[in-house]
Amino acid sequence: MDEQLSLFDHSPEPTQKQQKLEMSRDQFIHWKETIASHQQATRDNHPQQATLFDTGVNQFDPQGIDPFALRQYATRFYDLPHMRLSEEGDPCIYFLLDNASHLILYIGETVHSNQRWRGGHHVQEYLAKYVQLTRKYELEVLPALAFEWGAPEETRLRQKMELALIKKWKAPFNKENRAQWGHPFGE
């Protein structure tokens, strides 16, 4: 009976949630180094090349994309006057990077680049927590967004490309990689 009751929250404040444990400085550094090592090995083992999907349509091959070779923008890129995007933005595959640790943190796709980041993207919260922990431990952090423009407007094809890149790079903020890297900056 006691074991069964222990399944329920009997805290004096039912709305009080148990706080997530924060990584120590050494754990955080190790976590980042492990991911960076995997991504560098991926880069070394999969040379970037300019090949095309065999779709009969002129589309880029996600396996040939090197996120660090793409032009990078501030995370509030949509406020920059020199951005030449339509009001809603353009179709793209995008990468959230930490240039200081040479990490690809997140990979996403959208048909409207400006709308996707202007609103409340859940990854903005992950990034804020990541930056906060990085600064707490007095480590360097240089977040940026990189875009592969010209992604197809067709949602399924864009999502197929996104998933191929997520599987290849194993970006830690993508839910598909939580089993491997954990979810330390999530909800």
Question: Can you tell me about this structure?
Answer:
This protein has 187 residues and is α+β, with helices and mostly antiparallel strands. The protein has one domain. Helix content is 35%, strand content 13%. It is built from six helices and four strands; from the N terminus they run ααβββααβαα. The protein has a four-stranded antiparallel β-sheet with strand order 1-4-2-3, with helices on both faces. The longest helix has 21 residues, at 25-45. It starts with a helix and ends in a 6-residue tail after the last helix. The relative contact order is 0.18. Mean pLDDT is 78; it is low at 1-19 and 49-58.
Helical content (DSSP H or I, runs of 4+)? 25-40%
Q: Please, how many domains?
A: 1
* Count of DSSP H/I helices: 6
| Low-pLDDT sequence parts | 1-19, 49-58
Strand content bin: 5-15%
Which whole number gives the mean pLDDT? 78
Question: What's the structural blueprint in terms of helices and strands?
Answer:
Blueprint (H helix, E strand, L loop, with lengths): L1 H4 L19 H21 L26 E2 L18 E7 L4 E8 L2 H6 L3 H15 L6 E7 L5 H15 L8 H4 L6
Antiparallel strand pairs: 1-4, 2-3, 2-4
Summarize the structure.
The chain is of the alpha+beta class.
Question: What would the keywords be for this entry?
Answer:
187 residues; alpha+beta; four-stranded antiparallel sheet; globular; disordered N terminus
